[in-house]
Specification:
17% of the residues lie in helices and 40% in strands. It is of the alpha/beta class and 284 residues long.
Length: 284
């Protein structure tokens, strides 16, 4: 590998130090770095701007930031058909495989083919309004229906493969991938699922009836959420970002995307080793 895409968290305070490090690697290891047009003014000139991501010859995309930056790189990865490697600059960095101190070693491992590729499933999320599709996008972690600023609970009718599952009044509901099971889903009391599995996890947010519990569906299922009896617009959030305002009788359809995101795996640490270290799993 010698051609690396770069996506950077612009809010990071010590960016000049990282730019200097990248420039040194560019010169000493004969590496080429590329940036998306949205960051062309922010990142230094030795990092070239990509004109056509689909035709770019990027070997790997390096994300500098936390999990939010990593999630914002998903479209970059899919369009360039390049795997992702997160360089953690934040606190947790659960999706990151490396950090700034290990950057040079990580690049050496990539150049020497000392890595593995893991594929992770994505959610395909669409909204239908009056029978017409008005929104379509993908999410790596989750799609969340939330009441937003509305003072009252929303009523959601849930079906799987057009068969009724449950109707619940709640603050909202999370539909997550196994990768996203350790994100908002976990905070809301949902199960931890190995990210190499393929499944769709539904976790209600503060349901009015306490017997409505988290559920795990096959990735082959198509889950439909009908918004009912909401008196104001609620929100669809994709990977933590507000994506669309929902109205009464809107239908949100969640299924497994035919596309997958490629993660670079440098270490032999298992998913559960990472859980124990970063989440202090099982510690008193």
């Amino acid at each position: 590998m010698k051609n690396f895409g770069i996506l950077f968290n612009p809010n990071y305070q010590e960016k000049e130090r990282i730019f200097k490090l990248l420039q040194d690697l560019h010169r000493s290891k004969n590496l080429e770095f590329f940036k998306i047009p949205e960051q062309s003014e922010f990142l230094p000139k030795f990092i070239k701007t990509i004109d056509n991501m689909e035709k770019s010859k990027i070997d790997c995309i390096l994300t500098f930031g936390g999990d939010g930056t990593f999630l914002r790189a998903i479209n970059f990865s899919l369009k360039a058909n390049a795997p992702l490697l997160g360089i953690n600059l934040g606190q947790l960095g659960f999706l990151s495989e490396s950090n700034l101190k290990e950057l040079e070693k990580s690049i050496d491992d990539l150049k020497n083919n000392k890595f593995k590729i893991q594929e992770r499933m994505l959610l395909r999320v669409q909204i239908k309004r009056d029978g017409k599709q008005v929104f379509l996008a993908s999410a790596l972690n989750d799609a969340v229906i939330h009441r937003g600023q509305a003072p009252k609970l929303i009523d959601i009718y849930i079906s799987s493969n057009r068969r009724f599952v449950v109707e619940t009044r709640c603050d909202g509901i999370i539909a997550s991938t196994p990768t996203g099971s350790t994100a908002y889903n976990l905070s809301a009391g949902g199960p931890i699922i190995s990210p190499l599995m393929e499944a769709i996890v539904l976790t209600p947010l503060n349901p009015h009836v306490l017997t409505v519990r988290p559920m795990v569906f096959s990735a082959a299922d198509t889950i439909r959420f009908m918004i009912k009896q909401t008196q104001s617009e609620c929100l669809l959030q994709m990977d933590g970002r507000n994506s669309y305002n929902l109205r009464n009788q809107d239908e949100v359809i969640v299924s497994s995307s035919p596309q997958k995101v490629k993660f670079i795996k440098l270490s032999n640490k298992t998913f559960f080793q990472i859980l124990r270290k970063k989440f202090h799993l099982g510690q008193k």
